[in-house]
Every structure is written in C-alpha cells, then in structure tokens.
C-alpha cells in the first residue's frame, strides 16, 4: 500500500468502454485479486514485482485534480464516466481513506453527464446519500458473477461474499437509485440464480469471457482460468455458448437482459 501523486485522473475510455468518454480509477491495484481479472495482463500489473491482488496505490491528490480535469473535459463535450476500469473504487482501504467518496463530492460540484459506478463491495452503500444527489445521472453496478459462494471462493477468494453484495445492491435500489446486477464474467451458477436476482436491481446485464475480455477469450485462457474449471470438474461451463443457457433462464424470470458491451451503455437522456 502506498500513496502516489497523479497528474491527471480522467483517462480517455477505449475498447470495450468506448461508449463512455472517460474512465476514473481512484486506486491502482486491487485487494480483491480476482483470478480472472484482465488487469493482471496489463502493464500496470506486468511491470510490478508484487503479485496482482497484493498491492494498492492510493491516488492521494485525485480529488484536487478531478475538478480541473472535469472542467477541461466538459469544454470538449458531454462527459460519461466509468468508475472504475482497472480497480474497484470500493477497496477495503476506502473505508478509511474515503477517497472515492471525495471524488463523488467533487463530481457533485462539477457534475458529469453520466457516472457509472462498478464495484463488488458492499461498502458502496455508504455513499447512498451522495448517489441520490446525482439526479438520476448515475448507475450503481454490483458484480454478482454467480450465486454460489463456493464458486466465488474458487475464483475470487478475497472479494466480498455474494450474499453481502446482494443485500447492499437491494438497499441501493430501494433508495431509488438506478442500479445494475452485473453477471460478469458469468461463472457456474444454480438454477435458482434468476429468482435470487428478482427486484434486486433496476436492470441485469450478462457478460462472459469470450464477449467481454476484449480478446475473444484468449486473454482469459492465458491466465489459466480454464484450469480452475478443470479442478472443479466444471469444464462444460468454460464454453462461449454456456451463457445462452443462463440467458434463457434469466429472460424467463426477469424479462429483458442486457448483453455484454451493449448492456453497459451509459443512460443518456
Ligand atoms: S475487483 Fe475488478 S479490478 Fe479488482 S481484481 Fe477483481 S476484476 Fe480486477
């Protein structure tokens, strides 16, 4: 864990995120260390001696530079922000640093046209009071890749339990804030999964390694994710068509389901 000083905090959004104008990462590194995390293969992780999941840098001056970056970006057109693309903005550390909270406060002074918050941490519910002030120009997305805790533990043992994520998401939805249950990347799940998602969020989005890793699944293979499926005897699930079975179950129970990049689009009114 260390403090770093950044020159800019808003980064141009590219590739899978190009429906957004910018991404915003309050931290570098991530304590959740998911085994399928594509950031493991990016320079931020590759050029670091410590293993992904064991380090977090705190961008201490993020709030000061965000206002300046926002003013500059808004002069060029609408600003749609994805927070975050290469970390989780609600790191365990965030409970103490309140860095992400300070960014939300800054964004309420210089409000972007849309803010998408992507997390898998129940800590996000702490900021319900601020989310309400965005007047609908926000969506809070909670990753729920599976409903099975033993599967979650196999792929992301340091990430928060599924039940706690579901409870936090329900609380945010009930507070009247636009939300999203994000099944991404889809992991082996039970037949009851669609029922458990009912009334949990304003929308549900499904993605898998082949549609969503930005390389047609090659990046995921390089990370040894298939070996985890093998160890669990669940090889059948590691398949580019497996999502179709789950999609059908979800549609029967929940109606419309967003798919991959299309599902993640910003809400532009
Ligand atoms: S929470 Fe997100 S950024 Fe962190 S390790 Fe998992 S996938 Fe990567």
How does this structure look, described?
Keywords: Iron, Iron-sulfur, Metal-binding. The chain has 269 residues and is α/β, with parallel strands linked by helices. The protein has a single domain, classed as pyruvate-formate lyase- activating enzyme, CATH 3.80.30. It contains 13 helices and 11 strands. β7, α5 and β8 form a beta-alpha-beta unit. α2 runs parallel beside α4. The longest helix is centred in the first third of the chain and has 15 residues. It is globular. The mean pLDDT is 95. The site of iron/sulfur cluster (SF4) has 10 residues, from loops. The site of iron/sulfur cluster has 10 residues, from loops.
Task: Describe the protein's topology.
Layout (H helix, E strand, L loop, with lengths): L1 E3 L5 E3 L9 E3 L2 E3 L13 H4 L9 E4 L2 H15 L3 E4 L10 H4 L1 H11 L4 E6 L8 H4 L6 E6 L5 H7 L6 H13 L4 E5 L9 H4 L6 E4 L2 H4 L5 H5 L2 H8 L9 H13 L3 E2 H4 L6
Parallel strand pairs: 1-5, 3-6, 6-7, 7-8, 8-9, 9-10, 10-11
Antiparallel strand pairs: 2-3, 4-5
Helix pairs in contact: 2-4
The chain binds iron/sulfur cluster.
The site of iron/sulfur cluster has 10 residues, from loops.
Q: Which regions contain 5 or more consecutive residues with pLDDT less than 50? A: none
Gap between N and C termini: 40 Å
Radius of gyration: 18 Å
Mean pLDDT, all residues: 95
Annotation field: number of helices: 13
CATH class: Alpha Beta
Helix content: 25-40%
**At the third CATH level, what is the topology name?**
pyruvate-formate lyase- activating enzyme
Order of neighbouring strands in the sheet with most strands: 2-3-6-7-8-9-10-11
